[in-house]
Amino acid sequence: MVKPMRQYPSTSPEEKPKRQPHFIYKYLVPRNKQKNNFWCKLCVCILISLKFVCLIMLYYRGGAQSKAIKYMLPNHIKCSSIGLNFGRNYSHHPDDNTTIFFVETSGKTNPSFLSMCSVESAARAHPGAKIVLLMKGISAMKNTQTLGVSLLNCFPNVEIRPLDLEELFADTPLSLWYSRLRQWWQPYLIPVMSDACRLVLMWKYGGIYLDTDIIVLKNLLNLTNCIGREQQYLLNTAFMAFDRRHGFIGQCLTDFVEHYNGWIWGHQGPQLATRVLKKWCQKTSITKIQHCKGVKVLPPEAFYPIHWQDWKKYFEVMSKSEAQKLLDSSYALHIWNKKSGGTRFQIGSKVMIDQLTSVYCPVSYKILSWQRNL
Q1: Counting Cβ atoms within 10 Å, is residue 157 exposed (0-12), middle (13-18) or buried (19+)?
Q2: Residues forming a β-bridge with 216
Q3: pTM for this one?
Q4: What is the pLDDT of residues 29-84, one digit of tens each?
Q5: Residues 297/277, Cβ–Cβ less than 8 Å
Q6: At CA 278, angle to CA 272 and CA 281, rounded to 5?
C-alpha cells in the first residue's frame, strides 16, 4: 500500500520576498560587516606601517639636499684630459655668483645626453657661476656611480645634489599642498613637480632656472626678473630669471595652489605664468607686454626660435647663414624634449642638433660618440 506523500504548505510568490529579508539580515549582513571591518582594519594597519617606514627614511635622509654628490669616472675616462674651454668671448659679470638651477624630478639616476649637454653648455657659458643639478633619483646615502653624473663632476662649477621635495617646499605656500597631494592620482606628476620646483627655487633662492632640454648659447647673467614668451599669447617657464622673493613669483605660488589642476598639461606651468602676468599687469592679453611692474618679457626668438610644432628642424641640415641668423638673436635654444626625446641623430651628420652639441657641449658630444661606437 503506497503511503501518501506528505503535503507541505505551498508558498505563494507573494510570500517569498517576505521571508528573504529576514534570512539576509539575520545571517548574511552580520558576516559581511565582519569581513568589511576586517579589511578596513587591515588597510589602516598597512597605511600606518607605510607612513612609519617613510618617516624613518625621511629621518635618515635629513639634510640630504645640502650635500653635493661626487662620483669618479671610469678608468678609461679621465677628468684631467677633458679641460674646460670657455671660449674667447667670455667677459666678467658682476653677478657671477648667481646660481643656475636644473631639476630632474623623475627617478633617473643617470642624466640623459641632452641633460648633460644642457648643464655643460651652462657651465661653459658661466664659468664664474654655480650650476646646480637637483636629481630626485639620487640620494646622499648612496654612492652609486653613473657615467653622466661622473662626467658633470669634471666641471668645477657644477654641483649635483639630491632633490628632497618635502625639504624644498618647506616654509613656502606649496608645503601644505604637497603634504595633501594624492600623487597616485596625478597623470602629469613629473612635469607638475618640475613646475612646482622651479617656482620654489626662484622664490627661496633667486637666480636662473633652465629646463634640461635647453642648450645655452650665451651668458645669461645680464637677464634679471624676466621670462620668455613662447608664442604671441603664451609664456614659457623653461627659462626664468628672478630675484629672491620677487612679487611676481609669489603670485605664481599663490595661483599654483588656488587654481591647481594636475589633469591639464601645462596648467601649472606656461598657462599659470601667462594668467598671472595678465593679473600682474592688469591686461587681458600679453601680446604687447615687454616690461611691466618689474617683470621683463623676452620675445620668442630669445629662447624659443623654433616652435614646438617644428621641433624636427633640429634634426635637419641647416645652412650656415640660417644657423647664424638664429644664433645671433637667441640666448639659448629649447629642444622640446617632450617631442624630440628618443630621436637619434648620426654623429657628424651636420644636422642642426649635431652642430649645436658639438660646439656648445663638446665633452658630452664626445661621450655620446664613444657610446655609439661601443
Answers
A1: middle
A2: 332
A3: 0.76
A4: 455 545 556 666 666 666 666 554 444 343 333 333 445 544 444 445 555 333 34
A5: yes
A6: 130
